[in-house]
Design brief:
The structure is a homodimer of 421-residue chains. With 421 residues, chain A is α/β, with parallel strands linked by helices. Chain A is built from 15 helices and 11 strands. Chain A has an 11-stranded mixed sheet, with helices on both faces. In chain A, strand 7, helix 9 and strand 8 form a beta-alpha-beta unit. At the A-B interface, helix 5, helix 10 and helix 11 of A face helix 5, helix 10 and helix 11 of B.
């Protein structure tokens, strides 16, 4: 994999150029993207020209001219934007999504668009898991996670409505960062559920993801300067723990043990029953809003929507305003409760997914270990570094306090290092 | 003016057809839009055809085939969408904004796009006030307010980031409804500040606006069935009361007196000092986000941005993340405080604008009586019905509790009727 931080330091030190980084990406793409299928659109030539023509300005910019992949759910003026749907074949937006503009402002070079599932839904797309081509890379940010995992990109953008950043990051063995709700702007990103849609970042390791998010947002999110303080961690199994694989249970418990050995204070947290209601509320809110967010497509081109999403929207039409409002009220109560019960810890530790990437490409896996956290809105980080018996990556998830994204990233880095020891 | 409710009842009763309503709009447009300039795009022919071909389905739909004007800040697939900016000349989006889809789902016929100021900012556009062509109609939803005021449309959509629904409604003497934040979806609406941007509705009177919002959202917001209960009203002058004209002060006090005579319990509320901080926080949040929301335009076509907005964005570039975060924290505290201090009243009564529409077209007037409420997020309603010494409309504002939009509309209707008596 390409460490964004390592590359940025080399560029700063003058031992590497932005164009040289593109060459490394190009070599990995050439070698592996034929079988992985991480890109929906790619323009190495333009990125090389930009890198060569603006070297001086790029070198001193926050992203130092690093190549960035953009999930094809964000509008881009210079690449087709198809949202993973034939309804948008050849679509060329008039502008860049706000986050794409911020990447460019920060001195990032957009190398291409990465594959998204259809409208960032559960309907799988063509991408395969770089660790085993017969397994799903997860979704919906399939291409972004796979491209980083295969060393084709040091940084990629994604989005999460259910578990679309944390789950593919876990399945592909990379760091995924879903920031606090709306920390990264979503204007110009195709919406699925406006109460849930959250933009996020993929990179090789936790410190790389923090570096990228800091550069793009202009926020103090870097965690690579100095050792992270040992955090207070609450191991949180949640009510669906029994649906985690044995390997995942072991991975979470190993992470907790190793973090404790490294100096973290580890406790256990049993979530009160309201979080089971909140878990259910997620689906109601998501589907009620999706039936509206995709109204144009559903009303004018329903036959061009894939069967999984079409069925989801057919059912969503029946969700009442009353059920939606009740789900919103449950969410509000659960958020207050979450602040209460996590008051004396820094972060929670919980699975990133039920297990390693499932076999087959007919499903992108389940977001059951992500939905609650997307709904609650706090920062979540997938911490890579463990493997199952088939040598597939297993990711564990760090959940922080809303608005304190830096602390979540620092704790995730601490756990990542503890696991590596 | 065209009462949406009255027209809907006639269509239901079979004494009028959707095509007949379009004819009435067409006559008013023919007579007055040459001098008012409310439309950015118009297609009477298509609306007539749709009305004639789908009469039966439209008659029984929630909006009964009524014509609707869409502020040109919402994407539409069948009209150019220019956001009031030459950067988007001839822009044809691939889809409808979600709210436009919901209008069509509810059986509304989109007659045209109404003029917006540039990206819904303070930079004025061509529209004139129907009550006096030498005066501004207000902004940024200039065309929507003016079109309803001139009887050219029974319903129009707008949006508010500062005071862009309530102020033009007040200046043009129509009802304006800014619902609770995100009650109406904003996906596909050009963003200016994602924390503030709120979609809203214009109609002739309060009950008309409630009818339209109910039909579009599928929510129980109608207030035309039965008499509204006398509300508990807190007359709220705010710290900028001295900036209201004498006529506006009198209009608010008259509304309070007449509501009391009609049976409302009227008290007075002095807002604590934190709301002055919140007032200032609005500008910081708005401008910080606008510098990002309009990043593509600012970075690629700064010379095509008008001088008022360009200057605003130039200054906004200097707002720090720390100042923005502090403004967000102030907002959170002020929202909690607002819930506390308004606990024993149903609504607040306060000016909709500093006075009647100012003379001249070089400014759309000030949003100082709106910013705080946009930031706090509760439902706001402009109640028309009073006039100043020049016979220009004066609007007073009803502010409800967040999430209880129906109660705010019912109280506004109560005040509207009290004023009329």
């Amino acid at each position: 994999m390409l460490s964004a931080l390592d590359l940025a330091r080399r560029i700063e030190a003058g031992t590497m150029t932005p164009a040289g980084v593109i060459d490394r990406c190009a070599a990995a793409i050439e070698a592996r993207d034929g079988e992985i299928g991480a890109f929906a659109a790619l323009d190495l030539g333009r990125a090389r020209r930009d890198a060569q023509q603006n070297t001086k300005a790029l070198v001193s910019a926050p992203l130092h001219g690093l190549p960035v992949g953009i999930k094809d759910i964000f509008e881009t003026v210079d690449f087709p934007t198809e949202f993973g749907s034939p309804i948008y074949a050849g679509n060329r937006p008039h502008t860049d999504a706000v986050l794409v503009s911020l990447v460019r402002r920060a001195g990032g070079l957009v190398l291409g668009k990465t594959v998204t599932t259809e409208f960032a839904s559960l309907q799988p797309a063509k991408t395969r898991n770089p660790h085993n081509l017969g397994h799903t890379p997860g979704g919906s940010s399939s291409g972004s996670a796979a491209a980083v995992a295969a060393g084709m990109l040091p940084i990629a953008l994604g989005s999460q409505t259910g578990g679309s950043v944390i789950r593919p990051a876990a399945y592909c063995g990379v760091a995924g960062f879903k920031p606090s709700y709306k920390l990264l702007p979503t204007l110009g990103m195709k919406g699925f559920s406006w109460y849930l849609d959250t933009a996020g970042v993929f990179a090789a390791g936790v410190a790389d993801a923090a570096f990228a998010a800091a550069a793009i947002s202009g926020r103090d999110l870097r965690v690579d300067q100095g050792e992270p303080t040992p955090p207070r961690i609450a191991l949180t199994r949640t009510h669906i723990w029994s649906q985690a694989s044995d390997a995942m249970k072991a991975a979470v418990e190993t992470a907790a043990q190793k973090a404790a050995v490294a100096g973290a204070r580890v406790s256990e947290l049993m979530l009160p029953a309201i979080f089971e209601d909140a878990f259910d509320a997620h689906g109601i809110i998501q589907d009620f809003e999706a039936y509206r967010a995709l109204a144009f497509e559903y009303d004018h081109a329903r036959d061009k929507i894939g069967p999984i999403l079409r069925d989801q929207l057919d059912k969503a039409a029946a969700i009442t305003v009353e059920a939606y409002d009740a789900a919103r009220r449950t969410t509000k109560r659960a958020r207050q409760k979450l602040a209460e019960v996590t008051n004396d810890v820094d972060v929670l530790l919980t699975p990133s997914a039920p297990g390693a990437a499932p076999k087959g490409l007919g499903s992108t896996g389940a977001s059951i270990f992500n939905r609650l956290w997307t709904l609650m809105g706090p920062p979540c980080v997938n911490v890579p570094g463990q493997r199952d018996e088939m040598n597939l990556p297993l990711g564990v998830q760090i959940v922080g306090h809303f608005g304190d994204d830096r602390a979540a990233l620092a704790a995730a880095l601490f756990v990542e290092r503890a696991i590596a020891n």
